Amino acid sequence: MLSTYDDLLVHQTPAPVLHLANGDPAFYERYYLTAFAPDASGHLGFGLSIYPNTGIIDASLSVSRDGVQESVFASGRLPTDRTQAKVGPLRVEVLEPLRRIRVVAEMTDGLAADVTFVAEGSPMEEQRLIRNRGTAVASDRTRFVQFGSCTGSVLTPVGTMSIDGWHGVRDRSWGVRRQATAEDVASAEVRPIYAVWSVLHFPDDFLQVTLHEAPDGVGHVRMAMQTPRVSPSEVVPNVPLRRTDDLRVAITYQPGTRRPASAQLKVGPRGPLEFDIAVTPLQVFQMKGLGYYHPERGHGRDHHGESVSRESWRIDDLDPLAKENVHAQQLCIVRRSDGVDGIGIFEHIAMGPHQPSGLPKGLAAPQ
User: Fold this and answer.
1) CB of 354 within 8 A of CB of 204?
2) Beta strand 166-177 with 136-156: parallel, antiparallel or unpaired?
3) DSSP code of 191?
């Protein structure tokens, strides 16, 4: 099947662009954006994914403020025109590649948004994540992360929030991913995963941390990357990064949960980075608001045509050890060991055992 992309010099196989070289039904591509207020008063997330081998597109937008989280979800059949990243009331527009994107949520039961991200740091390519479950591929994906700022507004049932001046982080990923998808949600077993993803804004630079470990603590990925804050006109790909794979994360959990009460990041000394970071969480953003482990809106689920739904909840009313609630982001303030303060996101998921943390099988809290 041909598309307009076949008139461009972009082919990587003998087949037309719409024909993937990888036939795995878990193959996906994804846009992701998070934005948060400098005073930590609000937190927004957006994601849109396509699954070319199953013909599905889905998206979600979620906003957390004053302990209440509002979400809208959409799913439908994947169009052949990949320039239209839209499903239901949700869409993403690439205004200027690697520099500006726009996220729109048309009004749905009192929730709407129009947010533009402007890059203030060059894109940072993460170490490729390859993780297996026995003989099956759980993850094999590439992702780049980019820091910046946001403008726009969000309308919720309790009023309008200006997004102007909010900090932003976006990423773009593609490959094979089964973690947190509808396939994972449908499984009765708790499939082990221990991961940290932290994106931190400092006055003059940005830091991104990724860690995936097996139950015995052996790392699938350990990476910390730092890039300077620049003007949008200076943003270009493949800028040399300060980075290291010498990374340790120590988490103190809230009693009776798998949710961090505090964390310490030890970066280096191997490589060009060497410092510690103290992480103090302030508020929670449930990742099920973007479909992760959601019992009905899990990523890639076939809703047999267009489907749109709205949800809201008080975060304090949720069971933090329920499967759909274990995966969360926390808006946090941080202090680097050189005394510089920052703000950002600390995302963590811990399912199943993790020997270094004292986490048992299943979803029980550490003893």
Assistant:
1) no
2) antiparallel
3) -
H/E stretch holding 184 reads: helix 182-186
DSSP code at position 158: T
- The answer for residues whose C-beta is within 8 angstroms of residue 240's C-beta and 6 or more apart is none
- Tell me the HSE value of 81 on the side-chain side, using a 13 A CA sphere: 4
Backbone phi and psi for residue 25, each to the nearest 5 degrees, phi listed first: -65, -15
Token pair listed for 325: 């609630």
All residues at 6 or more sequence positions from 158 whose CB lies less than 8 Å from its CB, including other chains: 68
- Tens-digit pLDDT profile for residues 302-354: 999 999 999 999 999 999 999 999 999 999 999 999 999 999 999 999 999 99
Residues 35, 310: Cα–Cα separation, whole Å: 20
- For the chain, which domains are there? 4-17+24-357 (2.40.370.10)
Residue 303 CB partners (closer than 8 Å, separation 6+): 75, 76
CA atoms of 202 and 207, how far apart (whole Å): 8
The model carries a pTM of: 0.95
Q: Coil, strand, or helix at residue 181? A: strand
